[in-house]
Design a protein that fits this description.
Strand content: over 45%
Low-confidence stretches: 1-33, 852-868
Distance between the termini: 198 Å
Largest sheet: 14 strands, parallel
Helix content: under 10%
Number of helices: 2
C-alpha cells in the first residue's frame, strides 16, 4: 500500500523559516553564525494510519555534516487535541550551501518515541534564496513495529443492530506468531453507509440503519492488515405472534406446537439476534425456554405447558428493544380426567315420607386441578330408606354438574341415603363416590296412642313416677314430630306439668301428672291432638298417703248412763283425709275429752283397741254418769295427730236403774246401781256395762223390766230367791242367763238371744208367758227344771244333757222345737208333768235327736215327735 501523508504532521511542518525564533527551541553554544539558513520540512509517513497515535511532542535535531556537531536541537510540545504545529527556527550557517543532517523524533503521551524520521541531508537557503521544502520519511518505531502480521479475533462477527456499537479486537503477531501487546491498530469500515468507526484508533464499530453486510480492515502502522465482516440490521419496530396461538390441550399438558414470536424492522423483514422473553400472564403453566434469540427470519421459539385452570390461558412475548410492545398468545385448557365428585346441591333435605325432595340432588365432577369436567357419566343409586330415583344416569354438563331427575323418599321415617358415583381415572375399577342424606318426615297426625304412664298407682297428691306419654302417628303409622298435644284432667282433680306439649322427633309427647287427693276416686287424664284428630285417656289409682292423723268417722249419740254407747269409729287418715287401710297395728286409746258435770264420770268398756284395715270400732263403751257435751278423745303412741269426736249427752231414763260397775256383784248391793238403791218392781233394770262379770240374785227382788245388753260376757245368775219381772226381759246375744237354783217368775216374757244355762231351779209365770231361747241353751244336771204356765220355745240348739223337765201347767203345748232348731238329747232324759196336760206336751217342728236313751213320756202325750 502506498504511503499517505498525514495531515497532522503536514501541518506540523508547514513552515520552517529562518529569522523566526521559537522560545521552546534548544540551541547549541556554537559561535554566532555569519549567515541565517532557512529550511521547510514536510513529513512522509509510511502508513496512512499514523494519526491514530496521540502525540505529546516532536524533536528536531540538525547536525552539521562537516563535523557532526549539533547545530540545532529543538523540542516542540503538542497540546491535547492539537492537530498542527507551526515552527520557525534559524540555523547558523558558516557557508552558503552548508549541509546539515536532520533527524525527527515523535513521542506519544507516555514519552515513548513512536515515530522516527531521518537522518536525511538538508541544505538551508540563505540570503534571498527560496526556502527549500524537504520531505522527511517517517517510520513507526513504537510497540509492534517488528510485527509481520495482524489478525482480527474473530474474523467474522455477529449481527449488529442499527445504533449499536461493537468493540472489535485485533492482535499483532511477530515472526514467531506470538502476539505483541500494545500494538496500535487502525480500523476502517469499507461501507460507512452501514457501519463506521467513530475513532480509527479504536475498534469500536457502530451500525447504521441500512441493512446489509459490512467489511472492515484492521491495519498495523507498519503495513500488515486483516479484514472482517458484520451484518447490520435496522432497528426492530414490531413484535407479533407468528405461530402457536389459539391451541387447545388438556390442562397441565404441553401444547403440541411451539410458540413463535417474530420481530421485524420498518422494512418488514425479520430482525435476527434479538432476545425475546416469553411470560405466562393468565392460567398458570410454564414456558421453556423463557427467553430465546430471534433467528435470521426474526423468529424466537418457546414451548408452553398449560396451567391447571381450565378455560382461556394467556401468554405474551416481549423484548426490551420494543418497550410497551408485546405479542399476545392464548390457549384453551381443557379439563382433565375426573378425580373428584362432590355434592353440588340437594344435601340434607327433608320431605314427607314417600314424597320427592324439593331440590334434585346434583354433583360437581372436577379434575385434579378442580376444573369442572363435562360429559362425565354419573350414576345415582339408593343406598338406604327405600324410595326411587328417576334420571339416574345423567352426564355432567359444561359446568361439570350432573343432576338426578328426582328422588322420592321411602315410606319410613328417618334417614334416606342416595349415592352418586362414576369411574375414577383410568377406568380401572376404582370409583369416585359421594352420598346424599335426606330425612323422611311424618305426615299430618291422625292417631294418638298411649305408650307409657297409663294405669299407674300412687299415693294421694303424688306425682306419678312415669310420665304420661303418647305417640302421634300419621296415616302410615309414622311418628309425627312437632304436634301440639292438649292435656286435661277430666276426673279426680290433680295437676299437670303442662297444659300443652309438642311431640319430639320420635312423635312422643309427655306430661307429669300429679293425681288428686281423694284415695280410690276415679282419676282420668285426656290427651288430645290440638284440632281434634284423636285423643287418648289415661287412668290412675290413688291410694292413701302416709298416715298423719286420727279421725272420728262415727261418734256416739245420746245414751243412758251405763248403757252401751253407739259405736265410736276411729280411722287413720293421711293429710288429705283418706283412710290409710294398710294400718293394722296402731293401738288407739279413747278417753273422755269433755262433758259438763262429768268430772267423776267413768268411761267403761275396751278403751284401747288395735287398728284393723285403717279403722277401729269401739262398740262397748259406757259412761256411768249423766251429763251433757261429752266428747271422746282418740290418741296413739305412734304420734298420729289425735282426734276428738262429736258431742253427745248421757241422759238418765226415768224409772231406770243402771248397773254401773263392770265387776261382779250382788243384785242386792245398792251401790252397784245408778239410783243408789236396789231396784224395785217399779224400775226398769238395765245391765249394760260391758265386761265379763256376774250379777247374782240371792234373795227376792223384782223389776218392771230387764235388759241385759252388754258387748262382752256379763251373766245374770239366779242362785237363790226369786227374781220377779212383770214386763219384758231381754238377754243380749253376748250375755248369759244362768239359773242354778231359785225362781225366775213374773208375768213378763223372757227373750234369750244369748246363752241359757239351766242346771236347776224353775221358771214360772202366769198365763202363757213364754221363754224364747234364740241362742244356745244347755240343760244340765240331775235336778228338775220346772216349768209352770210357760211355754219354752227353742229357736236355736238345745243340748239336753241330764235332768228332766217338770211340767206343771195345763197349757196345750209347753215345749216347742221350732223349724230350723235342734233339740239334742245326748243322755238319760225324761219329761214329767204334775198334771195331765190338755194338749200336746211337745211340738217338734225342727230336729229332735235322741242319740242313746229313751224318753220317758207316754207316746200318746208326746205329740208329733219323730225320734231320730
Amino acid at each position: 500500500m502506498a504511503p499517505r501523508r498525514t495531515r497532522l504532521l503536514t501541518l506540523l511542518f508547514a513552515a520552517v523559516s529562518a529569522g523566526l525564533l521559537v522560545a521552546s527551541c534548544s540551541d547549541s553554544l556554537a559561535p554566532a553564525p555569519r549567515l541565517e539558513g532557512r529550511l521547510g520540512v514536510s513529513p512522509l509517513f509510511a502508513s496512512h494510519a499514523a494519526g491514530i497515535i496521540p502525540l505529546s511532542s516532536v524533536r528536531f535535531i540538525l547536525t552539521r555534516a562537516t563535523d557532526s556537531v549539533p547545530a540545532r536541537d529543538t523540542t516542540v510540545q503538542i497540546g491535547a487535541g492539537q492537530d498542527s504545529v507551526v515552527l520557525e527556527l534559524t540555523v547558523p550557517t558558516f557557508t552558503v550551501g552548508e549541509t546539515f543532517v536532520l533527524d525527527v523524533e515523535l513521542r506519544d503521551t507516555a514519552g515513548v518515541v513512536v515515530f522516527r524520521g531521518g537522518p536525511i541531508s538538508v541544505t538551508p537557503a540563505t540570503g534571498g534564496a527560496p526556502t527549500p521544502q524537504i520531505t522527511v520519511p517517517i517510520q513507526y518505531v513504537g510497540p509492534g513495529s517488528n510485527a509481520i502480521s495482524v489478525r482480527i479475533i474473530p474474523p467474522d462477527l455477529a449481527t449488529l443492530l442499527a445504533g449499536d456499537s461493537l468493540l472489535l479486537v485485533a492482535e499483532a503477531l511477530d515472526a514467531a506468531g506470538e502476539p505483541i501487546p500494545a500494538t496500535p491498530v487502525a480500523w476502517e469500515s469499507l461501507d460507512t453507509a452501514r457501519a463506521h468507526f467513530p475513532s480509527a484508533g479504536r475498534g469500536l464499530i457502530r451500525a447504521r440503519e441500512l441493512r446489509g453486510s459490512v467489511q472492515f480492515i484492521a491495519t498495523l502502522l507498519t503495513g500488515p492488515a486483516d479484514t472482517g465482516a458484520i451484518a447490520v440490521q435496522p432497528s426492530p419496530t414490531s413484535i407479533a405472534a407468528q405461530a402457536g396461538d389459539g391451541q387447545t390441550a388438556t390442562v397441565d399438558s404441553l401444547l403440541a406446537q411451539p410458540l413463535i414470536a417474530r420481530i421485524t424492522a420498518a422494512d418488514g423483514l425479520g430482525v435476527a439476534g434479538i432476545w425475546v422473553r416469553f411470560g405466562v400472564t393468565g392460567g398458570g403453566g410454564s414456558v421453556s425456554p423463557d427467553s430465546a434469540l430471534t433467528n435470521d427470519s426474526g423468529d424466537a421459539q418457546s414451548f408452553w405447558r398449560l396451567g391447571g385452570a381450565a378455560g382461556t390461558q394467556t401468554l405474551t412475548a416481549s423484548t426490551p428493544r420494543l418497550a410497551g410492545q408485546t405479542a399476545p398468545f392464548s390457549a384453551t385448557g381443557a379439563a382433565g380426567a375426573p378425580t373428584l365428585i362432590a355434592i353440588e346441591a340437594g344435601e340434607g333435605q327433608t320431605a314427607l315420607a314417600g314424597a320427592a325432595v324439593t331440590v334434585a340432588p346434583a354433583v360437581l365432577v372436577t379434575d385434579a386441578n378442580g376444573n369442572p369436567v363435562p360429559g362425565a357419566a354419573v350414576t345415582f343409586e339408593i343406598l338406604s330408606g327405600g324410595g326411587a330415583v328417576t334420571g339416574a344416569t345423567p352426564g355432567s354438563n359444561a359446568s361439570g354438574v350432573a343432576t338426578v331427575g328426582s328422588w322420592t323418599l321411602g315410606s319410613l321415617l328417618g334417614t334416606n341415603t342416595l349415592r352418586a358415583w362414576l369411574l375414577g381415572p383410568g377406568g380401572d375399577g376404582d370409583t369416585l363416590t359421594v352420598t346424599f342424606t335426606a330425612t323422611g318426615l311424618a305426615g299430618l297426625p291422625t292417631t294418638l296412642t298411649i305408650v307409657a304412664g297409663d294405669a299407674q298407682t300412687d299415693t294421694a297428691g303424688a306425682t306419678l313416677a312415669d310420665s304420661s306419654t303418647v305417640e302421634a302417628t300419621d296415616a302410615g303409622g309414622n311418628p309425627v314430630p312437632g304436634v301440639a298435644i292438649a292435656w286435661a284432667v277430666t276426673a279426680g282433680g290433680g295437676a299437670l306439668s303442662a297444659d300443652t306439649t309438642l311431640t319430639d322427633v320420635n312423635g312422643l309427647a309427655r306430661v307429669h301428672w300429679t293425681v288428686g287427693t281423694v284415695a280410690g276416686a276415679a282419676q282420668e287424664l285426656v290427651a288430645e291432638i290440638v284440632g281434634g284428630a284423636d285423643s287418648a285417656t289415661f287412668s290412675a289409682t290413688v291410694t292413701p298417703a302416709t298416715a298423719t292423723q286420727l279421725a272420728f268417722t262415727a261418734s256416739p249419740t245420746d245414751a243412758f248412763p251405763a248403757a252401751v254407747l253407739d259405736d265410736a269409729v276411729v280411722e287413720v287418715h293421711d293429710q288429705f283425709g283418706n283412710v290409710v287401710a294398710s294400718d293394722n297395728s296402731t293401738a288407739v286409746t279413747v278417753s273422755i275429752e269433755s262433758g259438763s258435770g262429768t268430772a267423776s264420770a267413768i268411761l267403761g268398756g275396751t278403751l284401747t283397741r288395735t287398728i284393723a284395715a285403717g279403722a277401729v270400732t269401739f262398740d262397748d263403751l259406757t259412761i256411768d254418769r249423766a251429763g251433757t257435751g261429752y266428747q271422746l278423745h282418740a290418741a296413739t303412741v305412734a304420734g298420729l295427730t289425735p282426734a276428738t269426736g262429736l258431742a253427745f249427752d248421757i241422759v238418765a231414763q226415768p224409772g231406770a236403774a243402771y248397773w254401773i260397775a263392770a265387776i261382779s256383784g250382788s243384785w242386792n248391793d245398792p251401790t252397784a246401781w245408778s239410783t243408789g238403791a236396789v231396784p224395785t218392781s217399779a224400775d226398769t233394770v238395765l245391765i249394760t256395762v260391758p265386761g265379763a262379770y256376774v250379777v247374782t240374785v240371792g234373795s227376792g227382788v223384782s223389776a218392771a223390766a230387764l235388759a241385759l245388753e252388754v258387748s262382752s260376757t256379763a251373766t245374770l245368775s239366779i242362785e237363790g230367791g226369786t227374781l220377779t219381772i212383770d214386763g219384758a226381759a231381754t238377754i243380749d246375744v253376748d250375755a248369759t242367763l244362768a239359773v242354778s237354783s231359785g225362781t225366775l217368775a213374773g208375768a213378763g216374757t223372757v227373750l234369750i238371744e244369748g246363752t241359757l244355762l239351766w242346771s236347776g231351779g224353775q221358771m214360772v209365770g202366769t198365763g202363757e208367758t213364754a221363754i224364747s231361747s234364740q241362742g244356745a241353751a244347755t240343760l244340765t244336771g240331775s235336778g228338775t227344771k220346772g216349768l209352770d204356765t210357760r211355754t219354752f220355745r227353742n229357736a236355736g240348739l238345745v243340748t239336753w244333757d241330764g235332768g228332766w223337765w217338770q211340767l206343771n201347767g195345763g197349757n196345750p203345748t209347753v215345749v216347742v222345737n221350732e223349724v230350723g232348731a235342734t233339740l239334742d238329747a245326748v243322755g238319760g232324759r225324761r219329761l214329767t208333768w204334775g198334771a195331765t196336760p190338755a194338749g200336746k206336751l211337745f211340738q217338734n217342728d225342727g230336729t229332735f235327736l235322741a242319740e242313746a236313751d229313751t224318753i220317758e213320756v207316754p207316746w200318746t202325750q208326746l205329740g208329733e215327735v219323730t225320734v231320730a
